């Protein structure tokens, strides 16, 4: 029996990066966000692919992620740590040339005490109230920080994929006000802001989800296919039920396939009776409840029995699955990533 496999199209990731790089234009550098193991797809492989395309700057969430990434990509490319300089990070930051994005007065103090010679970036809060120096802290610390030439000053948009709130414009104005005249390399936008408008690009953009085929980058090439092997099939007579809680009842004599994957593999139980799996180009309804390790599928309308069925493919991407269960593509991707055999395809240029 085949194993459950997450196919990852590295060419599609490369092409998405290039398309976003083209949108951001020649005056703006396009970095790549590879936190959470590249949204579950494997930061080492993704980063090496993007290096070949010309990416020179990467962002991860944690120093530990940065350390692993440095081992995978070698010396040279910049690696920024979004969580900043946390207690105990010093050796990793110093030894592996990782650049923390300092987020608070406390982190600034820690960094200047323990790693005064290690380069750093600064994050400013422009309204999201999650990470970053507040205006008053920035004003107090800026003279000292500017003297040490931060590698980057950045902020993050809270509503970059929602155009109606005026929040982007307010954050843009705040970021501009806080950083004009500093002469620093500036970055405000992730995928959403990059698409939203040129004035959000500044010197560097930081796309993540768009590289991996997710919204809000609507033209993204799909990146993942999730194929789940069929373990067993049976005929179910009219009136019989399938799965826990008897939530599906056969209205016709039905051919039912049981496939090897479930909510323990990051496939939400909320997909019960509420999704399609694909035999190539043919959709087949998921029937009954998703259990811990198994899913049942109505394959009556297929000729024969497929070896595997796909939950994610070019017909049904991460955002389509996310819509079914009231979440976002980011969560679907990151909950799947680590649990399957990963198979990469890449045409080495
Ligand atoms: C995750 C993250 C990004 C990338 O965001 P996408 O929406 O995936 O493009 C960029 N910047 C920061 C600060 C982030 O936390």
TrEMBL record:
PTM annotation (N6-(pyridoxal phosphate)lysine): residues: 35
Main EC class the enzyme belongs to: isomerase
Pathway participation: Amino-acid biosynthesis; D-alanine biosynthesis; D-alanine from L-alanine: step 1/1
Binding site for substrate: 130, 292
Cofactor: pyridoxal 5'-phosphate
EC number: 5.1.1.1
Residue ranges constituting the Alanine racemase C-terminal domain according to the UniProt record: 223-345
SUPFAM superfamilies reported for this sequence: Alanine racemase C-terminal domain-like (SSF50621), PLP-binding barrel (SSF51419)
PANTHER family: ALANINE RACEMASE, ALANINE RACEMASE, CATABOLIC-RELATED
Classification via NCBIfam families: alr
Name listed for the protein in its UniProt record: Alanine racemase
Organism: Thioclava kandeliae
């Amino acid at each position: 029996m085949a194993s459950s496999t997450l196919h990852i199209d590295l060419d599609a990731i490369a092409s998405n990066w290039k398309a976003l790089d083209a949108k951001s234009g020649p005056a703006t550098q396009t970095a790549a966000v590879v936190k959470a193991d590249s949204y579950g797809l494997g930061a080492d492989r993704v980063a090496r692919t993007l290096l070949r395309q010309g990416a020179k700057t990467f962002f991860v969430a944690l120093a530990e992620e940065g350390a692993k990434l440095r081992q995978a990509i070698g010396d040279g490319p910049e690696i920024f740590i979004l969580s900043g300089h946390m207690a105990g990070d010093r050796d990793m930051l110093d030894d592996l040339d990782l650049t923390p994005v300092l987020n608070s007065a406390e982190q600034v103090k820690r960094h200047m005490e323990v790693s005064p010679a290690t380069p750093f970036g600064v994050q400013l809060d422009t309204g999201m109230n999650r990470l970053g120096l507040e205006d008053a802290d920035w004003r107090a610390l800026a003279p000292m920080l500017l003297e040490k030439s931060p590698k980057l000053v950045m902020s993050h948009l809270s509503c970059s994929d929602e155009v109606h709130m005026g929040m982007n414009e307010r954050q843009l104005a705040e970021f501009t006000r806080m950083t004009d005249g500093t002469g620093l390399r500036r970055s405000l936008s992730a995928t959403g802001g990059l698409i939203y408008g040129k004035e959000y690009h500044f010197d560097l953009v930081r796309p993540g989800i768009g590289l991996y085929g997710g919204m809000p980058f609507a033209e993204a090439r799909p990146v993942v296919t999730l194929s789940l092997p069929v373990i067993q099939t049976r005929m179910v007579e009219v009136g019989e039920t399938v799965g826990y809680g008897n939530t599906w009842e056969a209205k016709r004599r039905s051919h039912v396939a049981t496939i090897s994957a479930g909510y323990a593999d990051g496939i939400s139980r909320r997909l019960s009776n509420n999704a399609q799996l694909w035999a190539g180009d043919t959709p087949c309804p998921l029937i009954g409840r998703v259990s811990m390790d198994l899913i049942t599928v109505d394959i009556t309308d297929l000729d024969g029995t497929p070896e595997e069925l796909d939950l994610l493919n070019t017909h049904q991407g991460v955002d389509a699955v996310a819509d079914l269960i009231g979440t976002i593509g980011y969560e679907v991707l990151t909950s799947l990533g680590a649990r399957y055999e990963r198979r990469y395809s890449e045409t080495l240029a």
